[in-house]
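User: Please predict the structure of the protein below. I'd like the answer in C-alpha cell form so I can feed it into my own downstream comparison script.

Assistant: Understood. Taking the following sequence of 431 residues as input:
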Amino acid sequence: MDRSNFKGTAVKLSKFLISVAASSLLSCLGPMAAYAQSPAPEENFSVTERPRPEYDPVGIRAGAFRISPFLRGDVGYFDNVFATQTNRQGDVVLGLNSGLDVGSTWSRHLFRGSFQSQTDFYQRFEGESRTNFRGDVEGRLDLGRASAIGAGGAFRRHVDPRTSPETPLNAAELVRFNTRTVFVYGYHTLNRLRLTGRLQRRGYDFADLDTLNFGRVSLEDRNRVEYDATGRADYSVSPDTSVFFEGGWNRRDYGVIPASGVERSSTGQTFLVGARTNITRLLRGEVAVGYLRQNYQAANVNILGSVSTRVALEYFASPLTTVRFDASRRVLDTGVESSAGLLQTDLGVQVDHELLRNVLVNFGGGYQRQGFRGLPRADRYLTANAGAKYLINRNLAAGLTYNYLNGRSSDLVNGRAYSSNGIRLSLTVQL
C-alpha cells in the first residue's frame, strides 16, 4: 500500500475510533453499566490479572493449541516530537498494532509463540513514522514434576525514540536496529530447594544513519554480542515465603572501536540475596540487594563497582486496588560515543484500580538516573502516566492513555533538556 492510501485509511480509522470511543463512554454512564466487584479477588490476583470470564477473549482452539489474535488502532497527539527545549513541534500520530499469540493447552510440556507489529504514522513529520516488530518462541520439556528444561528465541526490530540519549542530536532520521536472542534454561526442585539456571546470547545490528551535517554515517561501532549466564537457588522457609541467592555473569563483545577510541567491550558479575513472598491478600513480589561489578577493556575507564538492587512488589491495598513498587540498579551499554557504558537506577510506582467491573483506571510515575562511565555526565528523567480501559465485551476494548516525560542532562553540549506530553485513544479488537 502506498503512503497516500495508507494515510487516507488511517484518517478514516481515527474518525471511526473517536466515534466508537464516544459511544462507549456514553454507554458506560448509562444504566446498563456493570458495577465493580465487592468480594475479594482470588489469592493475590492483581487488578489487571483478575479473571473476567464475561470480558476475557477466549481465543481460537486449533487442536491442542489456542490462538489469540488482536488488532488495535489508535490516534494520538505528541507535543514535542523532536524532544527539544525550544521550538517544540507537535504532531498527530495514527497507529496500527496487530499481534498473534499461540500457546499449547497440554497438561505437561509447553510451546508458545508471540508475534506483534506496531506502526506509528506521523501526519506532519512523515520521516518520524516507524514500525517496530517482535517475534518470540519458546518450548519447555517437563522432566517429571520437579524438573524441566527449555529453550527459545526472539527477534526484535527496534527504533530508538528521539528522547533517548542513544539518538545523536544531529540525527536526521530515527536510529533503527535489530536484535536476535537465543536462550536455554532449566530448573530442578529438591524438597524446599529450587535450582534454576539460564544461558542467553543476544546480538545487536544497527543500520546506518543519516545526519544533518555529516551525511550518512555508520553505526557499526554499536554492533555487539551480549552473553549472559544466571544461576539461582530458592529455599522455601514457609508455603508463601522463600529466600534466594542469585549470581550472574555477562560479557559484551564489540567488533569496532568508535572514533573516540573508547573500547566498550567488558565482562561483569552480579550477586544478589533476597526474599520472595506471596502473603495472601496483602503482598506479593521480591526484594533483593547485592553487588555488581563491570570490568571494561578501555584503559582510561575504571572498574565499575556498585550496590545492586531489585525490587518488584505488589501491595493489595483493597480488593479493587493494586499498588506496584519497582526499583533496580544495573549496568547497561550505551551509544554515547565517548562512554564505555552506564549505571542506571530506576524507581517507579503504579496504581491500578477497578472502577467498575469493566472499567479499569491507572496512574503512576517514575524516576531514572543514568551515570555514564568515562564522562562527567548524568541524565535524569521524571515520568508520569494515567490511563483508562473500557472493556466493551470479549472482543472489543477502548482505551485512553496519557504520558509525561521530563529529561535533563548535566552535559549542556551533547545532552538533552526537554519535556513532552502524549495522549492516545485506542480501540482493540481481539478474539
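That's the full C-alpha cell string. DSSP finds one helix and 21 strands in the chain.
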